[in-house]
Amino acid sequence: MALDLAQLLNVRLYQAFDLDDEGRVLAGSDDSGSTQLTEIAPDGTSTPLTALPGAVSGRYLPGERAVIVSHDEGGNEQHQLSLLRLPVPAGRPAGLEDLEPMVRDPRYMHALADVRPGLVCYFVNRRNGVDFDPVIRQIADGAERELQLADAMFGDAAISPDGRWLALTVESKVTAASAHLALVDLAAPAGQERLAEVTPADAPAWNGSPSWTPDSSALYFTSNYGREFTGIARYELASGQLTWIVTRDGAELSGWLSPDGRLLLVEHNDNGASALSLHDAASGAHLRDLPLPVVGSVTDRVPAPCWAADSATVAMSVSSAPMPHDVLLADVHRGRVRQLTNSASAFGGDSPAVPEQHDVPAPDGETVPCLVYRNPEAQAAAPDLASSAVLVVHGGPEAQAKQGFNPYVQALAAAGHTVLVPNVRGSAGYGKRWISADDKHGRLSSVADLAAVHAYLPKLGLDQTRAALWGGSYGGYMVLAGLAFQPELWAAGVDIVGIASLVTFLENTSAYRRTYREREYGTLADDREFLRSVSPLTRIDDIRAPLFIIHGANDPRVPLSEAQQIHAAMTERGRECELLVYSDEGHGLAKRVNRADAVPKAVAFLARHLAAGPD
Q: What confidence score (pLDDT) does residue 513 get?
């Protein structure tokens, strides 16, 4: 049978954060309504660890029964770091009062970057609110070493096993989707540390997920330096030689080195579906495939797959339509994968919609990858919606709609719509050229891809007059831009934490984000008029489709004012526009209770505007 909305909103999601020496998995579980830490034993039993007001993440502290906990308040992303000793006090989940404060200053962000025995590395923007500095903190006495290396934002960090080196990925302030890899010699006197480039800072390339060989002589990392697609490279410190270990033409790869330095776990991204394989780390030779139980996506960066210290097992998070978000444990030597959680239990044996892959032609000769979800049983039960279409546009824009579980997509398919999920220009997963195709003055090329998908609807037997847009964050901008620049195409829109004006967004977003968003959209100093011209608010008089807006009051990325100003402008013009604001949310809907309130209202809104009229 088809799933109903109540089942979909009751799904419990799990993700793997870390794996300790005894085979216990530190996982995130939203069983309580927001993501909290839980510990899963090798036999599959789980113990809740935290019960904090907001969503949390964390890492084990190697060599101790303790967890570094990252937590914020109401989705404001001002992450603070605390220590939780295990087992949890009195056998109950820990509240904030049970945590040992490590780094707490609500004025600043503290981004957990790496954990080693006895120490933790984090990034903090307390120097000027914009740039982030790496800090290495000793657990025993709280002593900190703050490295003011550059005016920069860092993505990843990895301390070498011998404690001599810190590997960092340094985000470009000029080129979107670009970060170079650098080293810091921690043997240098305090205050004299310097960044030494591994890959050139001025090369348009993404480099990330660095990991060290056990003797600290070499780094493995994922990179597209000098290439169209990402592969796995090795850098030798002594010689400065960079060697490609595993590459594949036409495919994006990600890789993670085992602690003993012998194996590479490699993910091949096939249009948003993951295929895993094991390779010899020295030669790159393929050793064996590691089959997943479903066609789905391994979460590749946050959190990434994590190796056990003995290099025998890997814990990972996998998401797919029939397996919404679960923790898997892989025995790498036997090539077996075991499922530790069961997020699909909420389905009760009913079936979610599974994606079909389509290549949508664009008028300029490009092809837009698109996933199509439909549930024939739901459409039979709601014949007035059977020919309607909803395009769900991902955020980012430097992200990819993967073949994982999206509750919004499934809710819309369960209501009877055909759901199309395109990877428009600017999406990740298809090489450098595609991810940069919408940068700055190419902004409206991605909006034009929405029109290409609209033109494709008849090939799926869908009614072009009953098509709507749905999206969050940058996807919310795309919803508003579609309604403003293509008003004749769309019957309705649902905007979740979206951008109404690129000018006011850049003026009002968090200071640290402005710098890195300007490299994608253009700068206020040089491109203000262009930014104004591609802003939906500028074309407010052209928007005639009804609009439904959802926003979090604490959003540090896209301020609530973006939702308020488009809502006010629509209302002043007598256009249908509804705004839902959640006081305890940030950039999205992290809490189940809020999703249970907002999603049925948004689905009912689309049902009203996309239903077929009487014959």
A: 86
Domain ranges of the chain: 361-610
DSSP 484-534: HH-TTT-SEEEEES--S-HHHHHHHS-HHHHHHHHHHH--HHHHHHHHHHT
Task: Give the separation between CA 567 and CA 208, rounded to whole angstroms.
Answer: 39
Q: How confident is the model at residue 175, as a pLDDT? A: 84
Dihedral pair phi/psi, residue 541, rounded to 5°: -70, -15
**DSSP assignment string, 537-600:** GGGGGG--S-EEEEEETT-SSS-HHHHHHHHHHHHHTT--EEEEEETT-SSS--SHHHHHHHHH
Name the band, by pLDDT with cuts 50, 70 and 90, for residue 613: low
pLDDT of residue 7: 84
Cβ distance 5 to 411 under 8 Å? yes
Look at the alpha carbons of 20, 25, 28, 30 in this order and tell me if their dihedral is positive or negative. Answer: negative
Annotate 58-114 with three-state secondary structure: EEECCCCCEEEEEECCCCCCCCEEEEEECCCHHHCCECHHHCEEEECCCCCCEEEEE
Q: Of 350, 370, 371, 374, whose CA–CA distance to 362 is shortest? A: 370
The alpha carbon of 404 is separated from its chain's Cα centroid by a whole number of angstroms, namely 12
Residue type, 33: G
DSSP code per residue over 216-284:
SSEEEEEE-TTSSS-EEEEEETTT--EEEEE--TT-EEEEEE-TTSSEEEEEEEETTEEEEEEEETTT-
What CA–CA distance (Å, rounded) separates 494 from 405?
Answer: 19
DSSP state of 1: -
pLDDT over threshold 60, residue 615: no
Predicted confidence (pLDDT) per residue in 111-137, tens digit: 999 999 999 999 999 998 888 999 999
CA distances (Å), origin 170, targets 23, 219, 246, 483: 33, 16, 23, 37
| Separation between Cα atoms, residue 599 and residue 602, nearest integer Å | 5
Domain 361-610 class in CATH: alpha beta
Closest C-alpha among 48, 137, 63 to residue 98: 48
Asked if residue 579 lies in contact with residue 551, where contact means CB atoms within 8 angstroms, the answer is: yes
The reported pLDDT for the residue numbered 302 is 64
CB-count exposure of residue 322 (10 Å: 0-12, 13-18, 19+): middle
pLDDT digits (tens, 9 = 90+) for 155-184: 899 999 999 999 999 988 888 888 999 999
Answer whether 132's CB lies under 8 Å from 512's CB.
yes
Measured between alpha carbons, how far apart are the two ends of the chain, in Å?
Answer: 28
Rounded distance, CA 506 to CA 524, Å? 7
Burial 95-125 (b: 16+ CB within 10 A, else e): ebebbeebbeeeebbbbbbbbbeebbbbbbb
Please give the model's pTM, rounded to 2 decimal places.
0.94
Q: Which two tokens stand for residue 480?
A: 């508003």
Burial class (CB in 10 A: 0-12, 13-18, 19+), 410: buried
Q: Strands 492-496 and 367-373: what pairing?
A: unpaired
Alpha helices per DSSP H over 383-501: 407-415, 432-435, 443-456, 474-485
3-state secondary structure (DSSP) of residue 612: coil
Residue 2 is classified by DSSP as B
Two tokens, residue 142: 């709280």
Handedness of CA 549, 554, 557, 559 (dihedral sign): positive
